[in-house]
Amino acid sequence: MLRFAGKKWVITGALLGLLILGVQAKGPAAADPAAPIALADLPVQGAQVHALVMQGGPFAHDKDGSVFGNRERLLPNQKRGYYREYTVPTPGASNRGARRIVCGGPPKTPDACFYTADHYASFRRIAP
Predict the structure, then answer these.
(1) Which secondary-structure segment (H or E) carries 3?
(2) Among residues 10, 74, 84, 123, which one has the fewest Cβ atoms lying within 10 Å of its Cβ?
């Protein structure tokens, strides 16, 4: 609630909470797919997977190279089938882990690739 008290406006808990949630919903700049990450700044495994993408494989996981649906709508909007995902191994993980590279466009010569370290919650464009 917003109310006037004496000579100033006072924001009470419920309205303050909504304002804070609104600021948090926007998220950090790193969640912006336009915020680039240099290839050299990827984990070593990420750089290795990126190199494999550019040469067409071979890939360690059956799911590598499969269509990424962009259901989160964090990447630029494209037709289904445009994006493909690749697993970036996580040392010590007993499964595929959360790290991925998602590339859009033709295999071996993608238009753009993006890195996510948090299983599609945020992406950063890999700078060429």
Answers:
(1) strand 2-5
(2) 10
E strand residue ranges, 7-118: 8-11, 36-38, 66-67, 83-87, 100-104, 112-116
Q: Phi and psi dihedrals of 35, rounded to 5? A: -75, 105
In CATH, the number for domain 32-127 is 3.10.450.30
**Hey, where are the domains in the chain?**
1-29, 32-127
- Establish whether 119 is a catalytic residue: yes
Per DSSP, the three-state class of 47 is helix
Query: What is the reported pTM?
Result: 0.74
| Structure-token pair, residue 70 | 């962009």
Q: Which of 50, 61, 72, 119 is catalytic?
A: 119
Number of C-beta neighbours around residue 5 at 10 A: 7
Helix (H) or strand (E) holding 44: helix 44-55
Averages of pLDDT over each 10 residues, the chain, 128 residues? 54 48 42 79 97 96 96 95 97 94 96 96 93
72 is catalytic: no
Query: Looking at this protein, which amino acid is placed at residue 19?
Result: L
